[in-house]
Fold this protein.
Amino acid sequence: MKVFNNTTKKIFLTSWVSINQTENSGHKITQLNRSVSKPYWDILQPLRHRVDSIQVCDRQLAHRLCKLIPSQCPFERDIKLFGKTLFHIPPMCKLNPLYEEVVGLRFRALCYLADECGEDVSQYC
C-alpha cells in the first residue's frame, strides 16, 4: 500500500462530479459521464394537457367519467381450459400513452363525488 506525500489531500467523488479540495483558487469540478439528451417534441403533449385541464364540477359528468373509464384493464385475462390456466393476457392499458392522464381524470371524478357530493363511490371500484 502506497502512502502519498500529501495526506491532507481530500477528493470527494459523487456519481458525476469530483471536487479537489486542495486547490482553493479554482475548485476543479469535473463532469464524469454526463449524457446530454436532445430535446424532443412530444406529439401527444397538447392532448395530455387538455385531459389534465378537465375540471370535474358536475355530478352527471363525474358519473359518466366513472362509468366510461374502467378501474381495471378490461383486457387482462386468464385463459383457462378445463380448470387449467393456459396463458395470461397482461394488462394492455399501460401501453396507452394517455394512461396516466385518463386514470387521473377518473380519480378526480371519484374524489368529486365523494368529497363534494357525499356519495358512496364503492360501486365504481
Summary: The CA atoms of residues 40 and 98 lie 18 Å apart. Residues 1-21 have pLDDT under 50 and may be disordered. Helices lie at 45-52, 59-68, 99-116.
